[in-house]
Structures are given as C-alpha cells and as structure tokens.
Amino acid sequence: MASHRRPKQPSRARVTVLTTAAAAAVVMSSQAANAAPSEKPSKDEVKAKVDKLYEQAEQATEKYNGAKEKQEKLQKEISTIQDNVAKGQQELNDLRDGLGSMASAQYRSGGIDPSVQLFLSADPDDYLDKASTLDQLSTQQVDALKEIQEKQRELAQQRSEASEKLKDLSATRTELGKKKKEVQSKLSSAQKLLNTLTAAEKQELAQEESRATRASEREALDVKVPAGSGRAAAAFAAAQSKLGTPYVYGATGPSSFDCSGLTSWAYAQAGVGISRTSEAQTNDGTRIYSVSQLKVGDLVFFFNDLHHVGLYAGNGQIIHAPRTGTVVRYESMNTIGGPFMFGVRV
Q1: Residue 288 pairs with which residues in a beta bridge?
Q2: Quick one: pLDDT at residue 153?
Q3: Nearest to 101 by CA among 135, 144, 146, 134
Q4: Cα(first)–Cα(last) distance of the chain, in Å?
Q5: Comparing C-alpha atoms, which of 133, 56, 52, 138 is closest to residue 102?
Q6: Cα(300)–Cα(294) distance, rounded to whole angstroms?
C-alpha cells in the first residue's frame, strides 16, 4: 500500500530569516534606484586636492634629496676607507717582509734569534706583551714590531668603520627607495585626479597657471640687484638665467630643478657651496626673521617643516621652482601656500 505523507513544512525560524532577507533586498534595491549619482568634483575641488598632493610630494622630495645626499657621502667615505685599507695592508706586508729580511740575515750569520722566530709564527700583539722578550730584540727589531702592531690595529679599526658605514648605506638606500615611491605615488594620484577633468577644464587650469606666471613676472620687472651685493647677487643672477626651466623632483640643474636644487645650483654658480636640501640650507648662514630686512639673493623658507625654499627677489617677491607642473618663476611671497618662516643670508 502506498504511503501518504504530508510534505515537510519549513520551520518558523527559517521562514523568518528568508522573509527578512527578502525585505532587506527590496529596501536596498529601492534605495539604489532612488540614490542620486555621486557628483563629479568641480575643477576647483580637483585643483585643491592636486595642489595638496603636490605639496606632499615636495615634502617627500626633500626627504628623498636628503637620503640621496647621505648615500653619496657614505659611498665616498667607504671608498676612501677601502683605499686606505688596501694601502695599509700593503704597508703592513712590507713591514713584515722587512722583519723577515732581518731574520734571514740573522740566519746567515749564525741562526735566527728565538725571539724573532717566535714573532714570525705568532701574533705580534701577544708577543709584545711579554716584556722579557723585548730584552732579546735589537732596537731596530722592537721599532719594527711596534710599527707592525700599530698598523694592524689601525687596519682593524678602519675595517670596522667600513663595516658600520656599509650597514648605514644599506639602510639609507632602503629609505631612498621608500621616499622615491612616496613621491611617485603622490604624483600619480595627482595625475589621476587631473585625468578626471574635461579637456576644457584642463585648458582653464593651464591658462590660470600661465596667467599667474605672467603676473608674477610683471610684478618683478622692477627688481634690481643692489651693486656690490657680491655672491648673493651672482647667485640671484644665476637663478634669473633659469626662468622658465621646468620643475622636476630631485633635479639640481641645469635643465630642470626642484626648489632646493635651484638654490644650491645658483649659489654654486657664485662659487659658494651650500647644502642640498631646504632643511639643511637653513643652517648655511645667518637667519633673518623680518621680511623688511631681507636682501636680494637671501634664501627664504616656507612651511612649518621648511620643505620649500627660494631666493628673495625684492618687493615681497621670490624666484623659485614651485612644484610639479610649473617652471622656475617669480612669485609673491603671499601666494606660496605656506607661511614664511625666515630667511638666511649665506
């Protein structure tokens, strides 16, 4: 006989879950249908965000410059130490050969002095610690042993110093790589934002930038470098010769510059070596905190972390390499985007 069973009914809990899920799906679908599409940021909003990214890129650039400068310095120091070690090792070998010649002469004249024989097969440091042995050596042999001992200690110290600097160099290279990636990331983010603009909006921004450059140049037409201002005048004249040169992070000229690259290059043309980074350049002369006391050619620093520098041009103007997408130009100190901190007279 066939069995007649009632189909199994879903539990009350399962019905509740399914009903709730279905209701939520309907609500979310309704919300999605009624939600207004996200608004595209305006040209001015994009520009503000891009300018902020460029500022952050410049901050990272100055850190990158510092790491790069440290790397180059360490490489030179390590090279010098390694050269000294190689030279010292040769000198040590020559000293040992000289002592060996003494031993050969003694052998030919009747046998090697036991004390010299001991040295040739042992560490001279341990050997010289035995005062009784010194009495058995000639003055010439004692001097030779002491010179060898000193040279060995010197070489050991130099090798240790080189080892520490190599570790520092490795860490600096890592830091350099991180800062380079940070700069590139900021610039990439800025470019993506710019790419969201229409062709017309991009053209408007380019025209605004061009107008700003022309206006700053007109305002600076009356800038005159005082006679007899010497190196500052020469540095300023060098910077003037690079008006219109593009900004490129990490660049030190002569075909492109970042902010501190321009100032260090300009002073180099005047025969004055100053530091590579803006932060380090704050210590390259006498600080001046009043704008009214600034002279043409003085270094001028902006932002609390001192990540931007230019050359004072008189009349409240500076000449500087502003940021990515711009060129070396004159600009009012009031439009830099960060507060004036102080000047430095090199």
Answers
A1: 343
A2: 86
A3: 144
A4: 112
A5: 138
A6: 9
Active-site annotation holder among 151, 165, 276, 320: 320
Above 90 in pLDDT, residue 17?
A: no
Mean pLDDT is lowest, of 13-17, 101-105, 294-298, for 13-17
Using H for helix, E for strand and C for coil, what is the string for the chain?
Answer: CCCCCCCCCCCHHHHHHHHHHHHHHHHHHHHHHHCCCCCCCCHHHHHHHHHHHHHHHHHHHHHHHHHHHHHHHHHHHHHHHHHHHHHHHHHHHHHHHHHHHHHHHHHHCCCCCHHHHHHHCCCHHHHHCCHHHHCCCCHHHHHHHHHHHHHHHHHHHHHHHHHHHHHHHHHHHHHHHHHHHHHHHHHHHHHHHHHCCCHHHHHHHHHHHHHHHHHHHHHCCCCCCCCCCCHHHHHHHHHHCCCCCEECCCCECCCCECHHHHHHHHHHHCCCCCCCCHHHHCCCCEEECCHHHCCCCCEEEECCCCCEEEEEEECCEEEECCCCCCECEEEEHHHCCCCEEEEEEC
pTM for the whole thing? Answer: 0.64
Angle ∠(75,77,78) on CA atoms, nearest 5: 65
Q: Rounded distance, CA 132 to CA 141, Å? A: 14
Alpha-carbon Rg for the chain in angstroms: 36
Establish how many alpha carbons lie within 13 A of residue 16's alpha carbon, considering only the half-sphere containing its beta carbon.
Answer: 3
Q: Is 307 noted as a catalytic residue in this protein?
A: no
Max CA pair span of the chain: 130
Strand partners, 330: 319
- Residue 186 CA to residue 9 CA, distance in Å, equals 60
- Contact indicator for 307, 278 with CB cutoff of 8 Å: yes
Q: What is the token pair recorded at 277? A: 């980074």
Of 165, 308, 323, 329, the catalytic one is 308
Q: Of 284, 282, 283, 315, whose CA–CA distance to 300 is shortest?
A: 282
- Cα dihedral 193, 195, 198, 203, rounded to 10, equals 90
Backbone angles phi, psi at 219, to 5 degrees: -65, -25
Is there a catalytic annotation at residue 259?
yes
- pLDDT the model gives residue 261: 96
